[in-house]
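Here's what a typical entry looks like (Probable protein phosphatase 2C 38 isoform X2):
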Amino acid sequence: MSEHVIKKSFLETERNFLSLVEKQWLGKPQIASAGSCCLVGIICDGLLYIANVGDSRVVLGRTERATHETKAIPLCTEHNASIESVREELQKMHPHDPQIVVLKHKVWRVKGLIQVSRSIGDAYLKKAEFNREPLLPRFRLPEPFLKPVLSAEPSITVHKLSRGDKFLIFASDGLWEQLSNEEAVDIVNSYPRNGIARRLIKAALEEAAKKREVRYADLKKIDRGVRRHFHDDISVIVAFLDQNVINGSSIRNTTFSIKGGIPPPTSS
């Protein structure tokens, strides 16, 4: 396991998806506009590797030995044009394109189309051959591009696990638009493990309903397509860290690197 291996895996996934786009282009041209963020966590030999493309986020819940408080530690770099450093990176990579990032309806977007600067897929912004008819006009750029606008190269963080590291919250930006890192960690730390990801989603939806001055029960009744005007989609995984992995004493003997709310079966 290494940063090189993880990067190679991301780029191979990207290569295979773009190959699929090429094969299906004539029959299903809109596949060229399909893309995804990707957030990966790997535990190996007491090290936690976090790799990310897009604007999902992983936050570590760590209990401080002195105060017994559980702190929120963000562990990944996000690639969203709303972040100044991301805009600067894009401008540096595309110095001759004054429209590489555009403020549109008070939101920064790459080429005025998309908020993320890195993704898996989104072939229409990576290969000029897919940025033309029969792709829908709203995805097509008015001028051709010579180099990929978006990248699939992940940002990778390596964290040495310690005994105070308790859990990891992996979530799409829909959660983090409604809850702060600290709020999410407090919820996970304060409630039983079983159903904790669902509880985080409910807390985010309640906050979204509050911002739009509607009741939570009424928000849930709104059709999914219309709901996108109230909040982004939300995906959450909470992983509780196994102390056997952290202390390294039985790292080669256990088949579990993480445990959820349900304990592993015991041998008979």
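The chain has eight helices and twelve strands.

More examples are in the samples folder.
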